Amino acid sequence: xxxxxxxxxxxxxxxxxxxxxxxxxxxxxxxxxxxxxxxxxxxxxxxxxxxxxxxxxxxxxxxxxxxxxxxxxxxxxxxxxxxxxxxxxxxxxxxxxxxxxxxxxxxxxxxxxxxxxxxxxxxxxxxxxxxxxxxxxxxxxxxxxxxxxxxxxxxxxxxxxxxxxxxxxxxxxxxxxxxxxxxxxxxxxxxxxxxxxxxxxxxxxxxxxxxxxxxxxxxxxxxxxxxxxxxxxxxxxxxxxxxxxxxxxxxxxxxxxxxxxxxxxxxxxxxxxxxxxxxxxxxxxxxxxxxxxxxxxxxxxxxxxxxxxxxxxxxxxxxxxxxxxxxxxxxxxxxxxxxxxxxxxxxxxxxxxxxxxxxxxxxxxxxxxxxxxxxxxxxxxxxxxxxxxxxxxxxxxxxxxxxxxxxxxxxxxxxxxxxxxxxxxxxxxxxxxxxxxxxxxxxxxxxxxxxxxxxxxxxxxxxxxxxxxxxxxxxxxxxxxxxxxxxxxxxxxxxxxxxxxxxxxxxxxxxxxxxxxxxxxxxxxxxxxxxxxxxxxxxxxxxxxxxxxxxxxxxxxxxxxxxxxxxxxxxxxx
Amino acid sequence: xxxxxxxxxxxxxxxxxxxxxxxxxxxxxxxxxxxxxxxxxxxxxxxxxxxxxxxxxxxxxxxxxxxxxxxxxxxxxxxxxxxxxxxxxxxxxxxxxxxxxxxxxxxxxxxxxxxxxxxxxxxxxxxxxxxxxxxxxxxxxxxxxxxxxxxxxxxxxxxxxxxxxxxxxxxxxxxxxxxxxxxxxxxxxxxxxxxxxxxxxxxxxxxxxxxxxxxxxxxxxxxxxxxxxxxxxxxxxxxxxxxxxxxxxxxxxxxxxxxxxxxxxxxxxxxxxxxxxxxxxxxxxxxxxxxxxxxxxxxxxxxxxxxxxxxxxxxxxxxxxxxxxxxxxxxxxxxxxxxxxxxxxxxxxxxxxxxxxxxxxxxxxxxxxxxxxxxxxxxxxxxxxxxxxxxxxxxxxxxxxxxxxxxxxxxxxxxxxxxxxxxxxxxxxxxxxxxxxxxxxxxxxxxxxxxxxxxxxxxxxxxxxxxxxxxxxxxxxxxxxxxxxxxx
Lengths: 574, 488
Known about the structure:
The complex is a heterodimer.
Chain A: E1 7-15, H1 22-25, H2 45-48, E2 72-75, H3 87-95, E3 99-102, H4 107-114, E4 119-122, H5 125-133, E5 139-143, E6 148-151, E7 157-159, H6 164-172, H7 176-181, H8 184-195, E8 204-213, H9 217-235, E9 237-243, H10 248-254, H11 260-268, E10 271-276, H12 280-283, H13 292-302, E11 307-313, E12 333-339, E13 349-351, E14 358-360, H14 366-382, E15 386-391, H15 397-410, E16 417-422, H16 423-432, E17 439-442, H17 444-455, E18 465-469, E19 474-478, H18 495-507, H19 511-526, H20 542-554, H21 563-566
Parallel strand pairs in A: 1-2, 2-3, 3-4, 8-9, 8-10, 10-19, 12-17, 15-16, 15-17
Antiparallel strand pairs in A: 1-5, 5-6, 6-7, 11-12, 11-18, 13-14, 18-19
Helix pairs in contact in A: 9-18, 9-20, 14-15, 16-17, 18-19, 19-20
Chain B: H1 2-9, H2 24-30, E1 33-36, E2 42-45, E3 48-51, H3 57-65, E4 76-79, H4 96-111, E5 115-117, H5 127-133, E6 142-145, E7 159-162, H6 165-174, E8 176-179, E9 183-190, H7 199-210, E10 218-223, H8 225-228, H9 232-240, E11 249-251, H10 256-262, H11 271-281, E12 294-299, E13 306-308, E14 316-318, H12 331-344, E15 359-362, H13 370-380, E16 390-393, H14 398-406, H15 409-416, E17 419-420, E18 441-444, E19 459-462, H16 465-474, H17 480-487
Parallel strand pairs in B: 3-4, 3-6, 4-5, 6-7, 9-10, 9-12, 10-11, 15-16, 15-18, 16-17, 18-19
Antiparallel strand pairs in B: 1-2, 2-8, 13-14
Helix pairs in contact in B: 3-6, 7-9, 13-15, 13-16
């Protein structure tokens, strides 16, 4: 609420100057304030004082003439032109004016005035000249309800225009901001229609493109869908899944490893949940021109997925599976940011005519480095404030560029400690002392090697998630492949996919939801509800692990688990 | 000629129908109306909200008072530009009030999860330079900022306009704003520009013709072959100064140049998403049968390098012309002319050519992009500034600064005796230390020549970067065309 405006009868101050701009009303040097108060004393500052000296007032300026006073300022045409600074309206109000009369107002000033209960009254040139011609001491009356301005001495009057809505606001002291805040539901509906993704106060809707792919892809991804459904029910969100084809599955059905429809679905979704692709019939046929992997490369390219993110953590109950000595595993929790679209994998490739010489060009530009570096620095700032750039700057020009760019960007994240490791040393350090890392940032090929090396620390490839992020739809997938030998047997480890789904939830800014899913996974591991790769003797099926994760999310699990009950899908709990 | 004849005689309709009667502005506007209040304004959804340190603190305070968070922080981008120093930006800001404003911006952005490109950040710069440069500004968007030169972004075919701090708070709280639909004006400039004439001259020419309030209440679309021929940077200069003729906003239909400019920028859509976006952007033009409330046509060939002599941007003349006399202006403008000339220390009927000047400022959201700096550098290469002139070049952003160094432009400036400073709004409005002393003449590539704008008592002459560079070399107001021709 602001103060309501109804009527005003007052003497006026005539400022017969045209094109009074907002720099005159309040000079820029007085805008260094963080509150709305106190601008009145600097109103028309440079016209009021000589040499900016308050003791040296300019007698010829109307505001310094004690004969003139009142709540109405009358100015010549085009008042308030120039800058959008609302400080102009604040200074006029703070000085004590409630009305400005002119034959023409600049747009932004007019709306700023109205937002501060200051009434701009636009009159004809002729009427304005009549006012200027009045002897001092005369009063004007402004009646907002009737939309009239009257010269009280003569009774001459004119009506003025004001938008009906604004008039209602002023008469009642309503604020635009209160109105807009009352519109939240309509605004959210509008956003939903515009973006195709609804978010109302109660229920958030998300569209997820699901690419199950080949081999064990479908069975692990199904566990993630179950978990997402549980999250949706628990938190009141709606996940809308659109299934799309890719890989060998897509080649079999459409002839293409990635049909256009899949690309479209991915582009239009909020996130992509991806299983795995690849099939031995292509791996063993070097002459195949259409291959499942082409689908993934094309998708990465189309979505501009320039960063691959792989967290590496250890689980207390699985330490014995790690190839490293357990005393080196305490506190291992880092994440590798690998650049995905540049470097030697995408550079120019050459072979000579008799195939006795070949070369691959490694090139990077600043932009490619900058965008992933910002992601990595932001991640570090939310984690342990430590970033390690892995390069080979003693040898490679591209590595020196990486260092230069990262050093520049580092200045904008002063809280993040940055160090640099050559890739050979980094490869050793990951084995010798993996707990020293927080965020590891590196280029494409180094990242390929380092992230695979890091992935074995936790003990099972089946456990690790990843995200590929670009400027648009991000993709989430377990790091394991399609493992065709296990396909259809319900024995693959779904944890990699489930933790990828947790990253997906983080990406959608559903942090509480992501945390609950991770908690559910940790619970199943602690409860030894694990697949064959983790415990070859007392193992559970893929779908059982998935069921337990969902049940945990629903909150339907008892405190104590009876393994006899859940073994081999005989559970009475589910 | 033959083409238009063919069209006229042909009975077959054009291959693609561009009928429908909708202007570029209306198409974008209609896409963003959440609700129209009967007999009142519309609730308009805002796609991008840029904020800076000077017009945002009171808006954040309003939210904080109600314990509210910014409704859609992901649609908001912040930078520090208005009051920041342009030397030694790595040191703490000396001016305590400026420092406080910048620190408040940092705190406010952190509290409300807003992306901030603050002082020292590789993306920092003048808000209207970095938006396009980073690919944040895109066709078809609605864009607002608590700064009147937000109209700049209209060069991409967006509705972009300046707002007050109360409105900044409204966008924070609801991602919407209340606006009445403005009237529509189209300004068409056909033909080919003369050598030495830049887009800055076009807009100064237009404003001199229609006056500093001539487009108040209108959204202005710039069209015509001379506009199409301009680069994106040059188009931004035109839209930037739409506000100087009072327009709510200025805009130009996007075309291949627009798409090529956006492609590959940091926040631009990538890959397939980009192609999809371009397909939608191609529909953003005024239909052939659009009826505008006002249409004005100019001939590009009539435009010469321009300079202003008075205290509003409408008081401009061709570089070879004389300042008008009271007899030559309308009676209502006479007092204004006298007051202006008294402030500027100039006479009616005086020739500006040859007049000695003291400062040259090349910068501001109007003319501080890399193209402006390249143009100036190619002109001044091998020349030296006049001894008694001080020349400040203030790049629009950290990225522009970096490019200037990498391309060797910085060295050219150094050899010419020009000072290359660090990014910010600088002497355009003199909020920081960069002020022109009282009584001194400054040829400035900025956008406003108001009394005291560049410092109390400072006398501003607005011109293009080339005209400013020529003045820097000669120490006097000069017709840049003569220097180009003599060089040739």
